[in-house]
Specification:
404 residues, globular, 5-stranded mixed β-sheet
């Protein structure tokens, strides 16, 4: 089926995710749950039925009105693997098309090694296994950095020390499956739209805190990527002149002020934690009531609040979702964040809701898996060859069912 070119229509994927997790729903149920008009939902369902992905089930019971036709998934066409790359490990998940996590795992990894790409191929083989019964639709990869806008999976990441690394091409060639690579926060934003709090909103902002600071913006159900695929790098917004050195090479970036490494180093130098202690130790001290440890998080919340307020003023989202490993200590960040965030907004926007998501490392990888789940609904121009291959596997084209 030919569809208009443009950004990914994540709403189609959200329909599949909703049907997969709910077991079935009517067109009206879907329209309400996903926040789209009944007319648009009718058109989207028509396309999904024509593609062989959704089928009509029995009529739902009537309460006096006209009974509604129930809808369900027409296919359980394979599984999806998602992986999130960090400096020292890779997080993996295997999911169904509905987003349900079948299994997960972590593997040690050295992103700075000269054999980092071949090591990554071996890790995927180790996680996926050689003797699969259920075929893979594809592999989604989340990275902390920019990914080329042409969809070939070339990565620039100051955090990983990577420059123009052809990650997508290498993994696809060696693994013989479609591979889609994206900035990890953008991937998380896709997952929020498909499976999380963003399911109820077409316009929302995701902000992540942890080792770095990032953002993803969804508008009209689609993630904003920018001209070079690097939209959302708020961690590298210059916050103060002549500030501390950031991983990007500049001074005074927001990430250099409130990233995990900076908070831990500040706590060490202040004697709050020992010289060998880590973020978990700092949070433990704060949880135990140490006022100095609590101050570290509260003070970090101030600049974060002002940066996020600036984004809200520019983008005007329906809601803000805070995520990332840093949210484990959010109750300590919150006082500083809320005060600076609300006070920096204009009066008409001060009531915007802020949703803080519970966190585990699996969420990053689940976001990467969502890239593959949404790929069938990108235009050919947007998703490129890898998206075409996922579409082919999803609709059971024989030439495309090989690989892992």
């Amino acid at each position: 089926m030919v569809r208009p070119s443009g950004n990914a229509d994540v709403t189609r994927s959200a329909i599949l995710a909703f049907l997969g997790t709910s077991g079935g729903a009517s067109r009206a149920d879907l329209a309400r749950a996903l926040g789209v008009s009944p007319a648009l939902m009718t058109q989207l369902i028509k396309e999904l039925i024509a593609d062989g992905l959704v089928r009509e089930l029995s009529m739902s019971p009537s309460n006096g009105g006209r009974p509604a036709r129930m809808l369900g998934l027409a296919t359980a066409a394979g599984r999806v693997v998602g992986m999130k790359i960090s400096k020292d490990h890779v997080a993996f998940v295997e999911t169904e098309l509905s987003g349900h996590v079948v299994r997960s795992g972590n593997r040690a990894y050295d992103a700075s090694s000269i054999t980092s790409l071949s090591d990554l191929v071996s890790l995927v083989h180790s996680f996926v296994g050689e003797d699969r019964v259920t075929p893979l639709l594809g592999i989604g990869v989340g990275v902390p950095g920019s990914v080329d806008a042409q969809g070939s999976g070339v990565v620039d990441s100051s955090f990983l020390g990577w420059r123009q690394v052809p990650l997508g091409a290498v993994l696809s060639r060696e693994l013989h499956v479609p591979v889609l690579v994206e900035n990890n926060v953008n991937a998380l934003a896709v997952a929020e739209r498909l499976y999380g709090s963003g399911r109820e909103h077409a316009e929302f902002l995701v902000v992540t805190i942890g080792e770095g600071v990032g953002a993803g913006f969804v508008t009209g159900g689609a993630v904003v990527r920018g001209s070079r695929g690097g939209a959302g790098e708020i961690g590298h917004i210059p916050a103060v002149a002549d500030g501390p050195l950031c991983t990007c090479g500049n001074h005074g970036c927001i990430e250099a002020l409130i990233g995990e490494r900076t908070l831990v180093e500040h706590a060490r130098q202040s004697g709050i934690i020992s010289s060998s202690a880590a973020m978990a130790d700092l949070q433990e001290r704060a949880d135990d009531g140490d006022p100095l440890a609590q101050d570290v998080f509260r003070e970090a919340g101030h600049p974060l609040g002002r940066i996020v307020a600036g984004l809200v003023q520019i983008l005007d989202p329906e809601t803000v979702i805070i995520s990332g490993e840093g949210t484990r200590a959010w109750h300590h960040w919150a006082a500083g964040f809320e005060r600076s965030f609300r006070s920096a907004l204009t009066a008409d926007r001060r009531s915007i809701p802020v949703i803080v998501e519970s966190w585990d490392d699996e969420a990053w990888a689940r976001g990467a898996a969502a890239l593959v789940a949404s790929a069938p609904f990108y235009s050919e121009e947007s998703s490129g060859e890898q998206g075409r291959r996922v579409r082919a596997r999803l609709t059971h084209v024989p030439a495309e069912v090989g690989g892992l």
